[in-house]
Amino acid sequence: MRRGRKARLEKPPAQSAVGPGFTGGQYRPLSDTDMQNVHQTILDVLENIGMADPIPIVQEHALQRGCMLDDDGRLLFPRALVEDMIAEAPSDLMFHGQQERYDLDLREERVHTYGGGEAVTMLDPGASSYRPSTLMDVYDAARLVDKLDNVHAFSRLVVATDMKGRMACDINTAYASAAGTAKHTALTFGDYRNVEPTLEMLYMIAGSKEKFLERPFAHGGGCPVISPLRYGEDNCEVCVESVKFGAPVWIVVAPQAGATAPAALAGALVQVMAEAIASMLMINVVHPKHPVIVGPWPFVSDLRTGSFTGGSGEEALVSAAAAQMTNFYGLVSSVGAGMTDAKSPDNQAGYEKAIATTLAALTGCNNVSESAGMMGSLMGLSFESLVIDNDMLGAVMRTVRGIEVNDDTLSYAEIENAVYGEGHFLRQDQTLDLMRSEYEYPVLADRLSPNVWEEAGSLDIREQAAIRVKEVLSTHYPDYIKPDVDAKIRDKFKIEIPREYMQAGNGRW
User: Fold this and answer.
1) Using CA atoms, how far apart are residues 383 and 144, in angstroms rounded to an integer?
2) CB neighbour burial string for 145-167, b if at least 16 within 10 angstroms, e if fewer
3) Euclidean distance between CA atoms 240 and 224, whole angstroms
4) Do residues 469 and 444 make contact, with C-beta atoms less than 8 angstroms apart?
5) CATH value at residue 197
6) pLDDT of residue 443 exceeding 80
7) Which of 325, 318, 294, 337 is nearest to 42 (CA)?
8) Structural domains in the chain (count)
9) Is 301 inside a domain boundary?
10) pLDDT tier at 3 (50, 70, 90 boundaries)?
11) pTM over 0.85
12) Residue 120 CB-density burial (10 A; 0-12 exposed, 13-18 middle, 19+ buried)
């Protein structure tokens, strides 16, 4: 009996208790009246205050659609136009992976989690100090995410600070991402002119331009607003150019309450939503009805110092409210959640990340970003944190899934059989049938008895995470870019990752 039970435990599960795309919406920080008040104030802001510094192509098309310039040259959006363009914005969006099993359905309030952040430093396994991040860290992060089931898509996570020049950085970052993971990837560009050559490389990886556009496994975008309420030229150009991916364009705006946005959380919510909608309008006046991932990321200040605090309760609350407002408009949402202020994968990191990601997910955010790996108020990345957060996100997604109530799960017969039978449920068919599908099991979180834990070395979760990181990164070298294609890419583009570093046994890990 024990051998049979052990075999069942070791057999790979036919299904999992969690996965991408569970429907959220259970948590609502704003009442219906609150949402209407926020909405009307957003329309007032866009109509009467508007946005400064629209780039020429946006200004030209916006004026043709009925927008106006005030005496200060600010672009004003009539409320009727805003409401019409929101109503006609696509909401039936997909992220495609290089492999179909990684496709994500972004409709309605379906929840997905992934990392992001573009940190400039790395905390290596076991280290107590940070170092500058490199291109190899982008590649390693992609390989690690490729093996984390609860991180559903990829963004570069760190900046390749060792790269010289925007073009080299953008091309090599895209290459490292596509080589390291088959999951859908968000790309960032330092200059809009780098989009076309990057796409040319992605077409080669896909097999042709037509094959890529049929299933675009990457998308582009940027942060097109300088708060408060001013367009930023470079990122606006990147966002408009990114429609060429044939995929949703991502936009993120991040005003900081108490610094570049009102200290009142409701006011910060109004501004971040106005800026996010203005970013969507910026793309859609030029390219009508092009899909946009709307990313209102309201940041929060520690008003004692004025510095950004990513792990506060206020940050978690206002981010969830931003997701709720984006849902209110029927738009596909992204918010930053998981932006701990902790410098190490410790208890502080755990509770700050868990609160924020849980609230955002339960609100029904389509893309819970910053949810894995980020440390030090977005300044650093930890691979140990990535694998720890993968466990956390499994638990978070289990709460989003909720409890299924039906005749079978109400379990009357099982209760009756236990009462009049063995007095327990351990050997019941239902227990074994639901072991994998009803319950989510962490990879790292310790559930040993204290004495067994002591006998195993008394490892804490960071130490266990370091072991897991090294196991994955020393062995997982996927071949998503075939050797003949890779050779052609290297002939055409200056790829800085040595080919020998993309094969097992290279000694890096």
Assistant:
1) 8
2) bbbbebbbbbbbbbbbbebeeeb
3) 10
4) no
5) 3.20.20.480
6) yes
7) 325
8) 1
9) yes
10) very low
11) yes
12) middle
